[in-house]
Amino acid sequence: MKNLGNILVTGGAGFIGSNLIEHIIDNYRFNKIISIDNYYTGKKINHHKNNNVIYLKLNTVDILTNNIKILKNFKPKYIFHFAEFSRIVPSFKKLNDCWKFNTQGTFNVILYARKKKAKLIYSGSSSRFGKEENEHLSPYSWTKSKNIELIKNFSIWFDLNYTIVYFFNVYGKKQIKNHFMSAVIGIFEQQYIQNKPLTVVKPGNQKRDFTHVKDVVKGTVLAAFKGNKEEYQLGSGKNHKILSVAKMFKRKIIFTPKRKGERFTGKANYSKAFKDLGYEPTYNLQNYIKDFINKKNNP
Q1: Whole domain around residue 161: which residue ranges?
Q2: pLDDT tens per residue across span 244-299
Q3: At what angle do helices 15-27 and 213-226 cross, to 10 degrees?
């Protein structure tokens, strides 16, 4: 069993971060994991009861603060950076938060990784892949694309070690359901639980690649110790029409107006991740939705 040494996870109490920590606990040896999270979307219920996992309530902009001794003295081998503003449409209204978390916060995380000589694993945005081929459709996608540019330049300027992974519409255990940062599957699940119609953004035939969180975290850890200044798309390699996904829940559907900033289609090409990392998705969206409905109707 591989030992990952010391690990820092930003956003470790959030959806993907908490699943990543669980995956590491279950499948690897490690010395210590420190999670930093400002609990913007993270939850204490996502904490893992493990003596070698420490949770700090902290904004990433403050990661370099000298009076936080545990971080000052910590020597992580890997830094998994998930603590960013992560939604396209809300980034228009929450511009200050998007800028603080994705620009100021990530810059300080990069500085911390450089100072500690740690390998940075950064979650890029799959919004850059699609028919539009435009990284500037929203404040969110713009900040994410600039962060990748910055990380690559830091590698040239200061020999920063990094790997970039791209997530595609992640769903699964601990996903956000009742929050303005909720994603499609989480929104549909919450509406189903509340016996409300499912809301589909017009026209409904836009396509997305949906990836189970367990596939994502497995691929992310593989990228951490196998990837070397590379970029990997971690998706299912299949896309579904949003309307078709809504119909899987077998509930009434209503349409909502088209929203700016969103691409029309997106699908992962994980061939490089398969070749370099051995990554291959194993979960099926339709089976997941069937299991969800069965559990809610037969508690």
Answers
A1: 6-174+210-237+267-281
A2: 999 999 999 999 988 776 666 778 999 999 999 999 999 999 999 999 999 988 87
A3: 70
285-297 and 184-193 helices, crossing angle to 10°: 20
Domain count, the chain: 1
DSSP secondary structure, 64-121, as one string: T-TT-HHHHH---SEEEE--S---TTHHHH-HHHHHIIIIIIHHHHHHHHHHHTPEEE
Within 13 A of 298's CA, how many CA atoms are on the CB side? 5
Q: How far apart are CA 169 and CA 107, in angstroms?
A: 25
Q: Are 65 and 112 in contact (CB under 8 A)?
A: no
Angstrom distance (rounded) from CA 172 to CA 289: 10
Residue 198: C-alpha distances to residues 129, 188, 193 (Å): 26, 6, 11
- What the block records as the tokens of 124 is 């890029």
CB-side exposure of 113: number of CA atoms within 13 Å?
29
Q: How far is CA 86 from CA 3, 31, 143, 198, 220, in A?
A: 30, 29, 10, 22, 17
* Structural contact between residues 16 and 123, judged by C-beta atoms closer than 8 angstroms: yes
Domain of residue 102, CATH code:
3.40.50.720
Report yes or no on 196 lying in a domain.
no
Cα(281)–Cα(283) distance, integer angstroms: 6
Helix (H) or strand (E) holding 8: strand 6-10
**What percent of the chain is predicted at pLDDT more than 90?**
79
pTM listed for this prediction: 0.94
Greatest Cα-to-Cα distance within the chain, rounded to the nearest angstrom? 57
